[in-house]
Amino acid sequence: MTQFIKTGSEKVFRDPVLNSIRVKDQVILELIGTSEFQRLRRIKQLGVAGAVFHGAEHSRFSHSLGVYEIARRFSDHLERFYPSQEPGDGLWDVNERLVLLCAALLHDVGHGPYSHTFEHIFNTDHEAYTQAIILSPSTEINQVLVQVAPDFPEKVASVIAKTYPNPQVVQLISSQIDADRMDYLLRDAYYSGATYGQFDLSRIIHVMRPYAGGIAFDEKGSYAIEDYVVSRYQMYVQVYFHPVSRSFEVLLQHLLERAKFVFDEGQKDSRVNTDFISPTLQPLFAGNLTLQQYVMLDDSLMLANISAWRYAEDAILADLAIRFIDRKPLKSIVITDESKKLLPPIKQLIDSAGFDTRYYTAENDSFDLPYDAYNPKDKKPRTQIELMQLDGSLTELSTQSALVEAMTGRIFGNARFFFPREMLVQHAVDDIMAPIYADFQRYVHSETLVDPLNAELKEE
């Protein structure tokens, strides 16, 4: 049985979102103090979104502490009201407390700089790195965890991998309503200045119920759960899928792609300079990064390199770096399956205006499901939200909420085409590209890609 390691007194972290984050376990304090966890201070939670929402400068460090705190409140509630009396009774096993708290704290420790854009370019997986950091004897995190028990790192890693045998623990960390989502919705809403992500956290915790297959919620709390689902939907529409934020993601992606292209050329041709990549980043670009080198990467290191690339010998790399650093995002228009047939001619116009379409254009789809019921045939089946009736029976949330039912299984979002902002310049003076700009603008109406011939017919 896992030994609980307690501190002599409670440590309290003041937090603007959750008010207080309370720690009594020495192992949690030691994990927070490790170099791998402290690195999360230097990785922004919302990546490039700070270029749109200027207050969104919060880190994955503060988010991870928040997830820990919400998981702690989950555990305290379940231990107080639903402690297991005998094996197999479906109630909360208090011995699961520490593995839950450690997994909550460490769930994002494997994130790299600029997170998801970074993963796409360099083919990394933050969950795989999270497990590697937890399991590797070379990390400070592993050295702290093995003090609890020799097999404790494996237990914590299995929660991240969703293979831990207790579904309650896994669901509290990763499901459609979990500590991770609850914290990032509240925290991102607070720092972005949005009000959409607010919901009644204390009420949701109050109606939480354990059962043998996982976690359910008292049917009396269905309105609080409904509010949470709607909040998540609104945050995705208004914040996470903001078109300018997506523009910066596209810009960063192409910037890193160009940097890697130039670096790879330098590996084949000694006449091409590769010194523009700092020594700390070179193993990443070379594709032979060790775990120890990976945990040295953060946003500040990446940003320092990008800032230096403003003066790179490669003109495209330098220009993309300037656009990223000086906040000159690409523009975008909404595209549909039908209007995509118009992309080849407008790409040709962009190319004629002097822009390499590989780096200055992109199609970007951002779609999500606000909520979905469990479907075992899906590639990644979602853990549905269960409501517990007075007799102990379970019903799926959308069967009790007309609002959630209307949202269930319905994908929202849009597809956009990104291009250089210069293409929208009107009345250009002394610019030989002005006729090309004017021709391009015939395809744009109300930020949507349209057929200019059909538009002209409608005007007639």
From TrEMBL:
Which CDD domains does the protein's record reference? HDc
Q: Where is the HD domain?
A: 60-185
Pfam families linked: HD, HD_assoc_2
Q: Which InterPro entries match?
A: dGTPase-like, HD/PDEase_dom, HD_assoc_2, HD_domain
> What is the protein's name according to its record?
HD domain-containing protein
